[in-house]
Design a protein that fits this description.
Elements (H helix, E strand, L loop, with lengths): L3 E3 L1 E3 L2 E3 L5 E7 L4 E8 L2 H18 L4 H17 L1 H12 L3 H18 L2 H4 L4 E6 L2 E9 L2 E5 L7 H12 L3 E5 L6 H13 L6 E3 L4 H9 L5 E5 L2 H13 L3 E5 L4 E5 L5 H13 L9 E7 L3 H14 L18 H16 L3 E4 L20 E4 L6 H4 L6 E7 L2 H10 L2 E2 L1 E5 L3 H10 L4 E4 L15 E2 L2 E2 L6 H7 L1 E9 L17
Parallel strand pairs: 1-5, 8-9, 8-11, 9-10, 11-12, 13-14, 13-19, 14-17, 16-17, 19-20
Antiparallel strand pairs: 2-3, 4-5, 6-7, 7-23, 12-22, 15-16, 18-21
This protein binds nicotinamide-adenine-dinucleotide (NAD).
The site of nicotinamide-adenine-dinucleotide has 27 residues, from helix 8.
């Protein structure tokens, strides 16, 4: 089979650079290597930053009307080509096609939000703050900014950041995951077709070498990172030490609290969709279901029944509901938790290793079916670790308060959900729970584009969430102007009044 060569995108075209190191790219459903991605050297990153710096000088002066036209054109192209982009995501990540379309749709929402940039950048104006003196505020772009993204949303996560960054007048260097690199180049090509000037959006592929250079490079003014917690912490500490503005979104362990009055069919459907969708490789996946007595037995039974009907197979097959894991190494790591959980005393209700895989040529693929543990307790590795796979743990608690304490004691604080028909309990939960995003009878509460996405505690380093108003603020700097003009109709005098009254 011919392997694709995936390389950088700089100055509006593919750019091979020094290309001394490479990584393999797999089709997770077959386990075959389908591509080779170049890893950027320090010199390659420097070239991208120089290009972005040059482009910034022009781009920051392009009118908002023109920028908006390009954004609308980019949105139209994304809509027209979304099936093609989804197929690329499926081929490298493994998620099912409908799920890939879903991530593109969420990315398009942010582009649509960024189309409103003339409104979003509007400043304030105060006339006559002092006599003859006006004060107003403006927001200006930062310069070249870096976006470093994870494998699990190759299109959506970069689009949480770059539409707003570009709309606000910045230039962007994107370093996507080396495991699913091709979507970034596809997006770069769409930008070019939309009329974005060369150099405003660049892609450098690679690993720690590229990331470290972006973090240190004096030409990079901010870093937007999404990935695992240890790397997010590292990126935040290193980037800020080099004087950059950094938002670093980390890992998660999302809990879903089910109260006794909840609709248990709805809760079971939600747990299966949110636990096993994208094979659990979502930062908003539900990985712990907290069942308040006495609903545990019934809920576990309902989830078990639903898992039995889940169709696991290649993401490109229209009827697949769950695909493989991203790499063989990750599948093996996730699978090791099945033995660990059983050894630690949890009840392995459904063993994902036994789930049928449908589809041709899948023998070598990175498969693990949906897995359900019951009687899980804090202190077990399956409870404490972010597994990032199709493994759902059920913890039993005796009351709402015990469930809340459990969630709040967890070091992560990304998303959470409560399932109940009691409005008072739901209202109390959204007030008391210590996480960044809360769903009430909604299992994956990813905020719409005009709110902002971000967790608390070990799920976010920095104080800016992604997109929405916080995104606009992150990608701009405020400036306050105090002005006074001499008035020629009064002989060049400023009306003769004191200015400090
Ligand atoms: P990862 O941390 O391994 O990689 C993320 C990025 O960091 C990649 O571009 C990678 O090349 C780079 N990187 C990896 N190791 C590095 C190192 N030592 N030094 C510098 N850079 C390095 O994450 P992943 O496996 O690609 O993605 C899964 C993780 O991302 C999960 O923990 C998941 O929860 C998290 N995630 C979080 C969110 C969120 O919004 N909080 C969203 C999506 C994914």
């Amino acid at each position: 089979m011919t392997r694709r060569h995936i390389t950088h995108w700089i100055s509006g075209q593919t750019w091979t650079g020094t290309a001394e190191r490479h990584g393999d790219v797999y089709d997770p459903s077959t386990g075959q290597v389908t591509g080779r991605v170049d890893f950027a050297s320090v010199a390659d990153v420097d070239h991208a930053v120089v290009t972005a710096t040059t482009a910034f000088k022009q781009w920051r002066s392009v009118s908002l009307a023109k920028r908006t036209q390009i954004l609308f054109a980019f949105r139209e192209l994304l809509n027209a080509k979304r099936d093609e982009l989804a197929a690329i995501i499926v081929s490298e990540h493994g998620k099912v096609h409908s799920d890939a379309l879903g991530e593109i749709a969420r990315g398009i929402e942010v582009v649509e939000y960024a189309c409103g940039i003339p409104h979003l950048l509007r400043g304030g104006f105060t006339e006559q703050a002092s006599t003859g003196v006006d004060v107003y505020s403006i927001r200006q772009p930062l310069g070249p900014v870096a976006v470093i993204s994870p494998f699990n949303f190759p299109a959506m996560v970069p689009m949480w950041f770059f539409p707003i960054a570009i709309a606000a007048g910045n230039t962007v260097v994107l370093k996507p995951s080396e495991k699913a690199p091709s979507a970034a180049n596809f997006l770069a090509d769409l930008w070019k077709q939309a009329g974005l000037p060369d150099g405003v959006f660049s892609v450098v592929h690679g690993d720690k070498v590229a990331v470290d250079r972006l973090l240190e490079h004096p030409g990079i003014k901010s870093v937007s990172f999404v990935g695992s917690t240890p790397i997010a912490r590292y990126v935040y500490e290193t980037g800020t030490r080099h004087g950059k503005r950094v938002q670093a979104l980390g890992g998660a362990k999302n809990h879903m609290l089910v109260l006794p009055d909840a609709d248990l069919d709805l809760a079971a459907d939600a747990a299966v969709n949110a636990g096993f969708g994208a094979a659990g490789e979502r930062c908003m996946a539900i990985s712990v279901l907290v069942a308040v007595d006495p609903v545990g037995d019934e809920l576990v039974e309902k989830i078990e029944q639903r898992i039995a009907t889940l169709k696991v197979g290649p993401g490109c097959n229209g009827d697949s509901e769950m695909g493989p894991l991203v790499t063989g190494a990750h599948r093996d790591k996730v699978t090791s938790y099945l033995d660990a959980g059983a050894a630690e005393g949890a009840n392995l209700v459904v063993d994902g290793r036994k789930h049928p895989i449908s589809g041709e040529g899948t023998d070598e693929g990175f498969w693990l079916g949906p897995t359900l543990f019951d009687q899980v307790e804090p202190g077990m590795s399956i409870y404490g670790d972010e597994i990032f796979g199709p493994v759902l743990s059920v913890v039993r608690v005796s009351s709402y308060d015990e469930g809340l304490d459990l969630i709040n004691a967890n070091p992560y604080g990304n998303g959470t959900a409560i399932f109940t028909n009691d409005g008072g309990a739901a209202r109390r939960f959204q007030n008391e729970v210590e996480v960044g995003m809360v769903g009430i009878n909604v299992p994956i509460p990813v905020p719409v584009s005009y709110y902002s996405f971000g967790g608390w505690k070990a799920s976010l380093f920095g104080d800016s969430h992604a997109y929405g108003e916080e995104g606009v603020k992150f990608f701009t700097r405020g400036k306050a102007v105090t002005q006074r003009w001499l008035d020629p109709s009064h002989g060049g005098l400023n009306l003769g009044f004191p200015t400090n009254d």
